[in-house]
Write a structure and sequence with these properties.
Helix content is about 35%, strand content about 20%. It is an alpha+beta fold. It has a 5-stranded mixed beta sheet with strand order 3-2-1-5-8, covered by helices on one side. Helix 1 packs antiparallel against helix 2, helix 4 crosses helix 7 and helix 6 packs across helix 7. The chain is elongated and about 100 Å long.
């Protein structure tokens, strides 16, 4: 079940092992419930194939306790499996706070990865064993799906919308990475590798891969180049929302709605600033749609994300970005 069967992929994480256990025990339950029925049907079909002259006008009334138990016990067992499966699914939506965040851009027909230190790679994803890794994913064209069989995880990657997925691969090795959503003529060629290294090997790989500066620094440079600091910097005299300490926090909007500042909200605020205007501010920010690439968006989001560790300024008149 963990790789010794030729048709079963190796389990490279604790989550994968739990999924395997769920599959095994649920399959065993289904076999235990259905096998006696099919066996008895077969036996009775041969044993009583000629029929008999038994009087069936007054059949036995049956055993209510047995019949009720046959319905209730399997139902409760199946419900228990459902609850456990739901927990495994919900856990995938709650990445640990200290996860390594890797930006992923899917494109016909390749996977582009960028690490926090600015290291970039295509179709190969290097990660450290035993560390929580969160993928912030978006598509540059059509719908794709990030699928690593060894981790038992799969997540659709959508154009214009960020999706997130996290994992902790605890078994060093090289594992298949696939696109599980038909995305065009060369869909079958959109393949890659997940390379799980020991922490020391991963540190060496980061050093060798180099990079043009970490994403936060690159995002700060783009932030200044696009003129964002003129309005959103803490020392700015213009009436614009401060970005200090906003990531992951609630943002009150005009109209009374409240949203959580995440990657998707920041992206939408850059490309369509009049869509969700921060409470107390006018929709005067210009749109940057068509002016910033997907790579620049990832850098800007990474920079603003990094400000989340710093305390927000004590100014009640400041709100998250519009």
């Amino acid at each position: 079940m963990n790789g010794h069967l030729p048709f079963w992929p190796v389990a490279a994480s604790e989550h994968a092992a739990k999924v395997d256990a769920l599959t095994f025990w649920f399959t065993l339950l289904i076999v235990a419930l259905t096998a006696p029925v099919f066996i008895l049907i077969t036996v009775f079909a041969f044993r009583y194939r000629r029929g008999s002259g038994a009087d069936r006008t007054h059949r036995p009334s049956g055993n209510v306790l047995v019949e009720t138990s046959w319905m209730v016990i399997p139902f409760l067992l199946a419900l228990g499996f459902f609850a456990y499966a739901a927990k495994l699914y919900l856990d995938l939506g709650q990445p640990p706070a200290n996860s390594i965040v890797i930006d992923v851009v899917a494109k016909q027909w390749m996977w582009k990865f960028e690490h926090p230190g600015g290291q970039r790679e295509i179709d190969d994803l290097h990660v450290p064993a035993g560390r929580d890794v969160r993928l912030s994913m978006i598509s540059q064209d059509v719908i794709h799906s990030f699928f690593v069989p060894a981790l038992r995880i799969k997540q659709d990657v959508l154009p214009g919308r960020y999706t997130s997925l996290w994992f902790n691969a605890d078994r060093p090795g090289v594992y298949d990475l696939r696109c599980a959503q038909f995305c065009g003529m060369d869909h079958s060629l959109m393949i890659g590798r997940l390379v799980v290294l020991s922490p020391a090997q991963y540190a060496s790989w980061l050093a060798e891969a180099g990079g043009s500066g970490d994403l936060t620094s690159q995002g700060k440079a783009s932030f200044d180049r696009l003129g964002c600091s003129g309005c959103h910097a803490p020392q700015s005299q213009l009436r614009a929302p401060s970005l200090q300490g906003i990531y992951g926090r609630p943002a009150p909007l005009e109209g009374g709605r409240v949203v959580i500042v995440d990657d998707q909200y920041l992206r939408d605020s850059i490309l369509d600033p009049s869509r969700d205007v921060a409470a107390g501010y006018q929709p005067v920010m210009p749109t940057y749609a068509g002016e910033v690439s997907q790579d620049d968006l990832a850098k800007l989001v990474a920079y603003i994300r990094s400000l989340g560790d710093e305390p927000a300024p004590a100014n009640p008149g400041r709100e998250p970005p519009s």
